[in-house]
Design a protein that fits this description.
Number of helices: 7
Shape: globular
Largest sheet: 5 strands, parallel
Distance between the termini: 72 Å
Radius of gyration: 19 Å
Oligomer: single chain
Strand order of the largest sheet: 1-2-3-4-5
Length: 242
């Protein structure tokens, strides 16, 4: 008998539902699809300077209560409509939390907040919430951390963030190059996102899981709404909206 060398630190494997199965339970509605498509197009135009509005991404940095997030979206819907001539407001709906040390990793990873890690349930909660928010006419923005997550929810996301902890990750730059929504690298340094944008703009072939196959080689193109490398400037003073 040979000495075991594989999976020595793996306690158990729990099979997840396929993206196709989860999407089948919560199919994309016409209303949500229209919200996503219109916002992606508007973000593209704003980032390239062909539309004179500002993009505002606002909302919970980490969703832990879907009911509270939906209530926030309902309140935001009227504000978004009222300010639509000058602002394109996107609701931040983050389900994944990168951690420098330890801590709760987000609603998808641990939806019960008790260490049970019911990821199958978390994926369904996330997709259901995004669908309800989209049906309100409010576009959603998400940070993508796990590279399999987009297969479950990306069709309901209008704007994507690559976080400060992952903006230099080759895996996440490659993931960004294949996203259908405008991706953005988030960090306080302008050099890192500038390199990340340039890297993700290049077409590439990457192995990735899809809704039907465990692994395929996917050819990517430059994200259609990928903006030029950023040039930072100080934001103007803001007043509180009543």
């Amino acid at each position: 008998m040979t000495t075991p060398t594989d999976d020595l630190r793996i306690l158990a494997l729990h099979e997840l539902s396929t993206p196709a199965a989860v999407i089948g339970e919560f199919p994309r509605s016409d209303g949500a699809a229209s919200t996503v498509a219109a916002t992606r197009a508007a973000v593209h135009q704003i980032l390239h300077g062909t539309e004179d509005r500002l993009i505002v991404v606002i909302g919970p940095c980490s969703v832990h209560d879907p009911s509270a997030a939906l209530d926030y979206a309902q309140r935001l819907a009227s504000v978004r409509q009222r300010l639509s001539e000058s602002l394109d407001i996107i609701m931040r709906v983050y389900f994944e939390k990168p951690r420098t040390t330890i801590g709760w990793k987000g609603l998808i990873n641990d939806p019960r907040l008790d260490g049970s890690f019911d990821i199958d349930r978390g994926l369904r909660i996330a997709r259901d919430l995004l669908l309800k928010i989209g049906n309100l006419g409010v576009p959603a923005g998400c940070e993508f951390l796990e590279t399999t997550t987009p297969q479950y929810i990306a069709d309901l996301v209008a704007w994507a963030a690559i976080g400060a902890r992952t903006t230099e990750s080759q895996v996440h730059r490659e993931m960004a190059s294949g996203l259908s929504c405008p991706p953005r690298s988030l960090t306080i340094s302008w050099r890192l996102p500038r390199r990340g944008v340039r890297r993700s703009q290049r077409p590439r072939a990457i192995p990735i899981a899809t809704s039907s196959y465990a692994g395929v080689r996917r050819q990517t193109t430059m994200p259609p709404a990928s903006p030029p490398p950023p040039r930072w400037r100080r934001a103007p003073a803001c007043r509180r909206l009543s």
